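User: I'm putting together notes for a lab meeting next week and I want to include a structural view of one of the chains we've been expressing. I don't have a solved structure, so I'd like a prediction I can at least talk through. The sequence is below, exactly as it appears in our construct file.
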Amino acid sequence: MNTYICLNRQTYSKNGYSIVPLRYEDRYDIMKWRNEQVYHLRQDKLISKKDQDTYFNEVVTALFKQKQPKQILFSYLKDEKCIGYGGLVHINWKDKNAEISFIMKTELEKNYFYKHWSLFLGLIEQIAFIELKLHKIYTYAFNLRPHLYEILEKCDYKLEAKLTDHVLHKNKYISVFIHSKINI
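Assistant: Thanks for the context. Below is the predicted structure for the 184-residue chain, given as structure tokens.
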């Protein structure tokens, strides 16, 4: 199993679900989900197996050895089977903040979106606030999935900013919503 030297604990669990340091064996499932959900990601092209292998071998592998990595990524598991992935990205160690990233298996989105986002947020908050002592975590979301904002607000994330017409998406400018939670 991969281990992050910046973390004391590597596994966080709740109700049969867990997050563990990103597993190499999950890379093609993650690639598939990213390609299926490219519409709401900051990804400008489909990922090939070669792209994914290169990313895991050159970027992800190096993260485990860094005291202050720019991102800490996890496989999200149900009974040891990967059903999503995410983590803390764009980590600013000086100001103690990070963006939350998360996607789940595409087939789960329709009926289990709320459940898995809520569970993942609870797990990632343990790492961000308790283990890493970050001050603030936030999401950066294209205005394409308004049902996400309801979940964030129910989990005590506050709408911090709306960046109007901020990104060009399919030849149309759309807004970005930033929700955040402060470690109190």
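A couple of points you could mention at the meeting. The first strand starts at residue 12 and ends at 14. Strands lie at 12-14, 17-21, 72-78, 81-92, 97-104, 136-142, 158-169, 172-182.

User: Perfect, that's what I needed.
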